[in-house]
Specification:
By secondary structure, this protein is α/β, with parallel strands linked by helices. It is built from eight helices and seven strands; from the N terminus they run αααββαββαβαβααβ. β4, α5 and β5 form a beta-alpha-beta unit.
Length: 228
């Protein structure tokens, strides 16, 4: 384990049950919502961008897995023991030791709202190459940071970085990646409410189009390929 891995492991206690209870209580307390939410992201990230959701995916920094649980062939990785144990209890293939991630094994590496939590994003991006098959792609989802209020203390989100499309492109090229597609990605609007009325697939379709009409909770989506 290198020094950056040691630093990240030392921060694991930040992402314990209290963290997930305060940030994602709706996700793991409601199985139906968890399933619908994952179907929503399958549509928004994969299907709408013509990425085959049935190929091999590594969800790096997966949290509770709510973004990728609906995918057919997904391996979950997170440094948080709590998150990994949650996934294992629900029958998912989940790892929390980075040395156990197989190399040259995945068609896509998904990093959704994860890289901003890393104190070493450039090193992470360089390491991501090793996990992808030849021709594999990186799918990067990042928050849009717009808060201009002064702050002299850390908050519970523990975001260490923020990017624009231009600055993440600069970093990706520096780390051996070439972006091939970028667009804004919107979070689900009224998905839980709609999902209690109609079928899961109908709820996903309705919430997806409502989210784009409302421009709900935008994120930066970048799809990139290895330069070498």
């Amino acid at each position: 384990m290198n020094s950056s891995d040691t630093n990240k492991r030392s921060d694991i206690e930040l992402y314990n049950q209290d963290y997930y209870s305060s940030h994602y209580a709706r996700v793991f307390e409601d199985k139906n919502y968890y399933e619908i939410l994952s179907l929503y992201w399958k549509k928004a990230i994969f299907e709408q961008n013509k990425l085959n959701p049935d190929l091999d995916v590594l969800d790096f920094g997966c949290g509770l897995g709510q973004v990728s649980a609906a995918l057919k062939n997904v391996t979950f990785f997170d440094y948080s023991d709590y998150a990994v144990n949650f996934l294992k209890r629900n029958g998912k293939k989940a790892l929390n030791c980075i040395e156990n991630i197989p190399e040259n094994s995945f068609d896509f590496l998904l990093s959704s709202h994860s890289l901003e939590h890393s104190p070493t994003p450039a090193e992470d991006l360089k390491n991501f190459h090793r996990y992808l098959k030849p021709g594999g792609k990186l799918i990067l989802v990042l928050p849009v940071e717009v808060d201009l209020k002064p702050s002299l203390v850390p908050d519970s989100n523990q975001h260490f970085q923020c990017w624009t499309f231009q600055t993440i492109t600069n970093l990706l090229f520096h780390c051996g990646w070439r972006p091939v597609h970028q667009n804004l990605l919107y979070g689900p609007f009224l998905l839980k409410t709609i999902g209690s009325i109609v079928s899961q697939n109908q709820a996903v379709k309705i919430a997806y189009w409502l989210s784009y009409l409302k421009k709900n909770y935008p994120s930066l989506l970048t799809i990139a390929e290895s330069i070498n």
